[in-house]
Amino acid sequence: MKLFLGVDGGQSSTTALIGDETGRVVGIGRGGPVDHVGSPEGRATFLNALSVSVGEAQLAATTAGTEFEAACLGFSGGPANKEDLTREVVKASHYFITHDALIALQGATGGEPGVVVISGTGSIAFGRNAEGKTARAGGWGYIFGDEGGAFDLVRQALRASLQLEEGWGAPTQLREALLKETGAQSANDLLHRFYTAEYPRSRVAALAKVVEETAAQGDEPAGLLLAIAAHSLGTLAASVRKQLFVEHTPVLVSYAGGLFKNARVLTRFRLLVELEEGGQLVAPKFGPAAGALLEAYRIAGVQCSLKGAPEEK
User: Fold this and answer.
1) Which of 35, 238, 261, 298 could in theory staple to 42 by disulfide, Cβ–Cβ 3.0 to 4.6 A?
2) What is the pTM of this model?
3) Domain-wise residue ranges, the chain
4) Fold (CATH) for 111-284
């Protein structure tokens, strides 16, 4: 029995799925985050996360030491400098090492052509058409882009708080909510904390919940920030769609990432996607790890339906 491997390596955790040649998932494993591999510490973190997740999946599938027919691994930050390290842990006849946006697309659409928009700490849209051509929009990082991501949402909320503190901003409860959540004395104090190692991007992005909660309480500036985020994400989707698909033809558009759990963001995003003729917003069919497994089948030329993939949390 030939076996296939799909891995989603992210900034918070790593998930590995093993499937048999019929498309049935026979092993699931989880490990820690995949870090940048430019330093010895980063390489050690990478190898540990991959070894633990793949090893746990092999143990569940009772296939320890098996060479896979094909393995697809999608990593946050892309595949650069990760292939040699991957081959130390994973033995396969065919490898495809790629970025997390591609496997998110494969999972969300179940392997069908389309577009996926990801809104996590940052944001990016990625698509692939029936001819295999790919395109992206966004994903340029927290300084030059990532509009519609959680970090940018919090950045805009802090800007609104600073403006209020200086006497020229619109009335909003965002300032008080952020100060209460962080224990900062002022928006200016919080600004300076955000520039320290105490507040890495992931911790700043986690404060997006404060913006969502404030908007839910009827705060208009907070609600406007969510609307702007949704509009940015819709613009990314439209850009990729325009690059890959003929105008007005049916196109599947899906989504991934924590900000889409907000009903206000998702509703407005749906409106923007379906406003364009042919736009069809669909809930993600599978998660990124399952998308990586589907891609492993694809590169091996195996056609099958995925069965037993875990639900996304």
Assistant:
1) 35
2) 0.86
3) 3-107+287-299, 111-284
4) Nucleotidyltransferase; domain 5 (3.30.420)
